[in-house]
## 1
Amino acid sequence: MQTVVRFEGAVEAALEKLVKLGYFRTKSEAIRAGVLELGREYKILGTPEELEAEMVVRKVEKLDREIDAGKRKLVPLDKVLKELKIRV
């Protein structure tokens, strides 16, 4: 997901200082960390295991959409193994 956000005043100053002082490499990285911290604070993320499982599901769903849209193709395992000269 892409989102464009405009910051002014104290929020802008804090974001710039976080990057300038080296806490984060980029403003985007600082914002992502802040959103994750809010998720933890409001207890909407679950356990690390639950979060990882959710991320796996999202990745698989994204791959399925790409396959359905023709952006990605599946290659049979036996063909991959043969090309890599791997015997099972």
Note: The chain has a mean pLDDT of 92.
## 2
Amino acid sequence: MDVFETERAVVVRAEIPGVRGEDIRVNVDGQLLRIAGVRKVPAHFDVQRLHQMEIAFGPFEREVRISIAFDRDGVSAHLEDGFLSVTLPKPEPLRRQVTVETE
């Protein structure tokens, strides 16, 4: 998992090959970003004897604390080529004109 900051957002990028988008859940709870899902065993394999197993199947969950302020309503997630990118946009700076009062 990579977490990096751009000028406009914090981006979390997770490598999760073999997992479909409908099997992934992304939640924001305060400063916590939670990515959870399940990597299902392919149904088309008729395994009789296992010789080596390095690919983990089943449920998974990762949490990362985001210490930079971000707009929770603008969070988006995109899955492409086995990489999930979650974009947490930074809030727009609050600007206002201040009137100078005189006596």
Note: The chain has a mean pLDDT of 92.
## 3
Amino acid sequence: MPRSKTAAAAPAALDSSCWLEYFSDSAHAKRYAELIENTGALIVPIMTIYEVYKVALREFGAAHANQAVALMREGDVIDVNLNIALSAAATGLPMADSLIYATAQMRGATLWTQDQHFEGLPGVKYFPKN
């Protein structure tokens, strides 16, 4: 399906768990497909690229991992900066989760996740893993 650069939708960021569902074509992949394919509204915290690449490399091999990164780079990739780092440190979440959450918050994006650490936080759409 062609990806769209239109930013009409509200900004969204996906936690690594959602990206991995999409790339593994799991039963939940369709839940995240529209967000991923609307690259104009997609915020991609650099930490998600690290986590997805690491898992994809281990589970699927280098070619698949590189394809995953290429797709993720079509969104607005956000590096960690001082403001994100300080905001992340104040969340009480584990390091990677806090950086992902702080990045989404600073960009006004809804964070989609299956990670229970995020359940109940403002600006989060949480889907329990089944």
Note: The two ends are 27 Å apart (CA to CA).
